[in-house]
Amino acid sequence: MGHKSRCRQLSRLLPLLCCFVICSGCVTQQVSKRNLPLSGAQVSLDEARRTQADPRTAVGHCLDAAYTASGLVSSASSDEATDAQLIYNNACREMAVLLRSSNELWNRTTTIQSGDHAYRLRFASASRQADTWDPNYFDFFRTPKKLHSKLPIETRRSKGWGGTLVGVHKPPDPRKFFLPLVGLAVPVTATVDFTKLSSKAGGIRDATLSLNDPTMRETIRIAGMQRPLAGDFAAPFAYYPNPKLLGIQALMHPERYKERAGLYLLEPYDPDRIPVIFVHGLLSIPQMWVPTVSAIQSDPKLHGRFQFWVFAYPTGDPILLSALRLRESLQRIYQLYPRTKGMVLIGHSMGGLVIRMQAVRTRRVLWNAVFQNDADRLYATTPSDNLVKKALIFDANPHVERLVFICVPHRGSYLASNWIGSIGVSLIRIPRTIVSEIGAALSGSILKSAGLKRLPTGIHGLSPRSPVLRSLDTVPIGVPYYSIIGDRGRGDTPNSSDGVVPYWSSHLAGAQSELIVPGPHGSYALPQTIAELKRILSLHLATLGRSASGDTSKISRSPRRPMARRLRSVWRALAS
Fold it and tell me: How many other CB atoms are found less than 10 A from the CB of residue 140?
């Protein structure tokens, strides 16, 4: 093709190329205009992060980002709406942290200037209509992103609107109220809602920051629309320390665990929620229940209905003593909080024996089994407040309404009496205070008459030859109970074992139900186990509804008490 021919073709294509370039420019300009507000919201959020050293300025940028992003969702495309929601959530989360770091701004109505815009920022207080936290309840916040790195397992989170946080409350004397020494960590979702500009307001936008409780509500009104509320139910558990080898230390040196032992609330006390108390087993600590509790809290049918507690105890101590400590702790609950509802106890391994001793009346069955020929003489000469007598003779707790046993050695485990158990027993050092207290009541000859060369440890108590386990197995359990038993996936029940406890030891003929799960002794976090716990708790709710006299509508509805009253009861307790 000649030079002139190519020039003629190009001259014909030139108008088409010009039209293409012009049209492309129009499309690019439209895309830029469409993305401009979303880009502006992201720029505002970036500016907030850049100016964190100046909280007032950074909060202004966060408000700009949240305001712009919340207004885009209804008109934006699907992808842009997702991006706008993410910007809004991050802006709310980071703004709450910034505000709490400044005493000048926290829980105060103040005007925030940001460029050409001004906001009148208010804090939503606890109210009967909205399940929001009192801002003054929290001493500081932690972000879930950092805390989740400490969790050994990924747990479920509720996606939605709002910045998820962990709020921490540290009262002066936390253990007096069954709270952790490092403070109580709870899930918080921060949201901000804006009102339209008013000419009377001089162009100032009203902004209300709410600290929502995601365990109490599922939706939130933002930009005139009801939207799902985000919630992170696992992050609060990651706030608590989880020292390595602590379970081994609690077994071998129970005295060192003394300050950590006891009952712990995992959320502010609420008399309208049903207490569920988890008790761990040998060589373990309460943190083992993190995925289990988180999964139950994440269930929309169950969250807001139950209140979760954990019992920490040194597993090297005698099982009878650990059960006594739990009985005393449960009694203190009803002294401090007399409106507490009946409770559900869930125990794993040795913890199952500890909870079983909360729902039986022993009379002298255990005493006679331990002291045999000397039982009558010792009973007559031992005062009723003696530690040994209280540990062996007790009544069922009337507030315990249901038990769940997970891989529990009701009739012992041979691992406790073989060479492995012998090594473990030789390493355990019973606290001197316990030795002296029991020794003051029982002489060496009496221990000998009971067949004991030394005080029994937690491992001793798991032997199939233990007179306590043998006699306890004859005492009827006074409430409904359920069994969850592992078989390591072999499907060989009744000849099965979870690797530590054989089926013949875990099985109880009187159980309301028995579920065999395909896991080892540590089957407390299996999906099948968690599903069964949810089923049992749902059954508990349904049973309460059927047993309620007269009007059952109060039971069928969620018993979520308004947050204002809930927090007032907490403050009254803390002030007493």
Answer: 13
pLDDT tens figures, 82-138: 899 999 999 999 999 999 999 999 999 999 998 888 999 999 987 655 589 999 999
CATH of the domain at 503: 3.40.50.1820
Q: Are 515 and 485 spatial neighbours (Cβ–Cβ below 8 Å)?
A: yes
Residue 78 belongs to domain spanning: 38-235
Instruction: Reduce the DSSP state of residue 42 to 3 states and report it.
Output: helix
Look at the chain and count its residues. 576
Question: Final residue of a domain: which of 214, 235, 256?
Answer: 235
- Locus of tokens 């020494």: 181
Angle between helix 3-50 and helix 78-100 axes, rounded to 10 deg:
30
**C-alpha–C-alpha distance, residues 340 and 271, integer Å:** 5
Nearest-angstrom CA–CA distance, 334 and 257: 25
Which tokens hold the place of 248? 């081994």
Which residue type does 270 have?
Answer: D
Cα separation of 538 and 54, whole Å? 49
The sign of the CA dihedral 499, 504, 510, 513 is: positive
The answer to the question of residue 561 being in a domain is: no
How far apart are alpha carbons 239 and 294 in whole angstroms?
13
Would you say residue 65 lies in a domain?
A: yes
Nearest to 574 by CA among 169, 274, 133: 169
Backbone dihedral region for residue 224 (phi beyond 0: left; psi -120 to 50: alpha; all else: beta): left
What's the whole-number average pLDDT of the chain?
Answer: 79
Q: Are 160 and 231 in contact (CB under 8 A)?
A: yes
